[in-house]
Amino acid sequence: MVTNVTNFSRSGLYDWMAQRVSAVLLAAYFLFLLGFLVCHPNLGYAEWKALFSHTAMRIFSLLALGGLIVHAWVGMWTITTDYLTPMAIGRWATGVRFLVQAACGVLQFVLFVWGVQILWGF
User: Which of 64, 90, 107, 119 could form a cystine bridge with 29, CB 3.0-4.6 A?
Assistant: First the structure.
C-alpha cells in the first residue's frame, strides 16, 4: 500500500485534474509559440526579445513553467509509487522512493527558480 505522504495533492482525482489542466496549458503555450514562429518566418533576436518583454507573455510563460513543474511532479510521483515498490526493488524501496522523489522535487524547484530568473531578469 502506497501512502500519500509525499504527494502534494489530496487524492488521485486532484492529481488527475492537475495533470490534465497542466497538459492543456502546455498545449496552449506550445501552439501559441508555434503560431508565432509560423507568422514570423524571419524571426530574429529583436522580435524574440520583444515578444518576451511583454508582461502578458512573461506571465503566460510563467504559467507554462508552473504547469510543466506540476505535470512533471504528478508523473514522477506516479511512476515512483508504481515501480519503486518492495516487490520490485527490495525492502529499501520506501527509502529509495523518498530519495528519488526528494531529488526530483529539489531539481524541479531549482529549475522553476531558474526559469523565473530568466523570465523576469532577476
Answer: 64
